Structure formats: structure tokens, C-alpha cells
Amino acid sequence: MKIAPKIRGFICTTSHPDGCAANVRSQIDYVKSQPELTQKPKNVLVIGSSTGYGLASRIVPAFGAGASTIGVFFEKPGNERKPGSAGWYNSAAFEKEAHAAGLYAKSFNGDAFSDDMKQQVIETIKADLGSIDLIVYSLASPRRTDSRSGETYKSVLKPIGDAFTQKTVNTDTEEVTTVSIEPAEGDDVKNTVKVMGGEDWEWWITALSEAGVLAESFQTVAYSYIGPELTFPIYTNGTIGKAKEDLEKSAKKITDTYAGGTAFVSVNKALVTQASSAIPVVPLYISLLYKVMKEKGNHEGCIEQIQRLFSDHLSAANGPELDEKGRIRIDDWEMGDEVQADVHELWDKVTTENLGEISDISGYKSEFLRLFGFGIDGVDYDAEADPTTGIPSLADAE
Ligand code: NAD
Fold first, then answer.
1. Residue 68: CB within 6 Å of ligand 1?
2. Tens digits of per-residue pLDDT, 190-201?
3. Is 311 in the pocket of ligand 1 (CB under 6 A)?
């Protein structure tokens, strides 16, 4: 099957197995070009490991420290008629590369919020690894079914209190317009906290602990975002920001509960991922941010961010450096005064007419396509691709 991109709004409904594999290989090559990590995690569980920050969080400990990894994600395999999702092909490529390098790697495709998934992972840890010393929690999901009550909650991206009006870009038509987003109502805040807050992270740690598969000394990390004031109403002070506050409370609870364990929230940089492209206003901010950071020479993607998270924090000899609220800050370069001042100046000026010149909209769009394996050098898009590419450790389940 020849596979081309099919974009619908902020998602691409096709993905290319060879392009995704090339993406994974280039992330692995980057990690191999970096110094080996000094404090090496041995057995790593990544929840949300197939794309974006979670995929990078699987690649860095595997190829930077020789760690065994278990990955959990929710992706679609392809078939003869329809390609699978990018995260499926990324995970297939990751496992193949890991196995070729002699590394243990197993994957689970299904709902990370469910008890059943937690049990399957625990059984595998017991059988294969004994214990886990690092758990990365990197889920981005629009909904969660509470495994105890059976109720399903939906998260929303809305301001709280007042409607929010701000510039935004339509990444298809490259038009800069103004968007108004109505404030959260009813149970919106509570539901978003339920989906994207820390409860399920805590449930994972409790389940792993009760099953006796947490290493005596373990670390766990979940990801957050803060960003500039101009996105505060839709992010930090909005429904998702409340969920991220909850994540910080969960980090404290986990650290207080487990004598040998420490939980961190890492605040990461705004990057093009499937999750961030769905947030109004953010793609325009990212297009300007990329322009500024690329010009300053300090632009990073997921893999560079996560490499720094490990080398400077999680695996650093003296442990992570934390801000006044106890968080790891790998968004430090994004939030630097000069970068922010330059982005703000561009933000005030940006219009449909000058978008191509003063922003990195072309970089944004090509990175968006790359998420799905398109536009990658060395990949022959006219050749037949195999949409049925499988994930080795899931071969029996397919
Ligand atoms: P992403 O969309 O690339 O990845 C989400 C992952 O979650 C995928 O592996 C997906 O398969 C998995 N997933 C979703 N629902 C699932 C379910 N029910 N069961 C199992 N797996 C499921 O997202 P991302 O941007 O890498 O986001 C990961 C985390 O990083 C989020 O907490 C996000 O808020 C945070 N973050 C993102 C940015 C950014 O700009 N992208 C910045 C800072 C922090």
C-alpha cells in the first residue's frame, strides 16, 4: 500500500510505518551520540510510551543506559486496507531496534486507566524483571473510565471563569484569526482533573507497590506544562492547569507514602505532538517559539528535552535540581527572559500576511507531518509500505 498523509483538522488519519521507523531511529541515534547516563535506571515502565514525550522517555533509558523497558499505550494496528496509528509503528520500530541491540522491551496496547492493564503489566514485571526502578507517567488522553466506579470522564481545554479571546492560527489555511473560548461549566474542571490529574498515576504506584514489584529505591516522573502568560487562560489557569496542579499534589503524596520512592513533576517545553496540536492558541505560540529558539540555537525536540531530563536531573549524581515548588524545569530555555521577550514582540505583530516570514509555521507543519512519519529524508513514499507491520512482543495478541 502507498500511504500519503490525510489531514483532518488537527489530526492526521494516516501514518507511514517506514517514516515512523526512521523517526525512531533518528531519536535512537541522537541518544547514542550523547554521553552514557551515569546513574543508570535498570528497569523502566513508561505509561504512554508510543509518541511524543513518552516515546522519548523510553528511548533515552534504553539506548542511553541499556535499560529494560515496558511500554504501555493505546494505539491502532494497521491492516491490508488501512494504516495503523503512528504510535503503533513507533512502538514496532522501537522494539525491533531494542531487541537488535540485545535490550529487553515488551509493550502493552490497551487502556492504561484500567485495572486489567495494571495487572497484566505487574504479571510481566514479576515474570521477567522482578522490579521496576523508574516509572514515567506520560499519558495525554481526552477521556478516562474510572476502573472502580465504571464511570467515564471527559477532559476539556477551557478557561475558568471568563471566556478567553486570543490570536490563533489555522494550520491548514495558515490564517491568523481570533478565537473565543467559552469558560468551563458544570463538572468540566472536576472531569478534566479526573482524566489528566494524578489519581491514576497514584493508582499505578499503589498497584505496583502492593504487588511487591517496586524497587526498594525508585523514582517516578509525570509531565506538566506552564508556558507564557498569553496562554495562561487556556492552559495554566484553565481546566488542564487544574489537572496539572493535581499532578503536583500526587507527586507529594507518592513521595510521602513510599520510604524509598521519590515522585517528580517535570515541566517540559511546548512541542508539536498529537496532544498539543489540539489546544487552541498553542500552535501559533509554538510556531513563534520555534522561530525564536531556532535562531538562538537552543531549540530542542522531545528527544533532546528528555535526554536533558535524565542527564541533568533523574540520573544526575546529586539528583534533580528543583524549583521553589519542587518541580524539575526542562522548560527553562523556553521560559528564558530573552526568548519570551522575543516571542511576545512577534506575538503582537503576527498576522496572516507576515506569518510565513516572522514565524516558523513551515517548521511547525513539517514537524506535525513527521509525527505521522511523513516528509522524512530517505523514505520512499512512492514505494509500497507494509501497513501490517507488527510489534514483536504483541505478535501473539494480534
Ligand atoms: P502524545 O499525544 O504524543 O502521547 C500520549 C501517549 O498517551 C501516547 O503514547 C498514547 O498512546 C497514550 N495514551 C493515551 N490514552 C491512553 C490510554 N487510555 N491508555 C494507554 N495509553 C494512552 O502526548 P505528549 O504531548 O507527549 O504528552 C505527554 C505528557 O506530556 C502529557 O502529560 C502532556 O500534558 C505533557 N506535556 C506535553 C507538552 C507538549 O507541548 N506536547 C509540554 C509539556 C508537557
1. no
2. 999 999 999 999
3. no
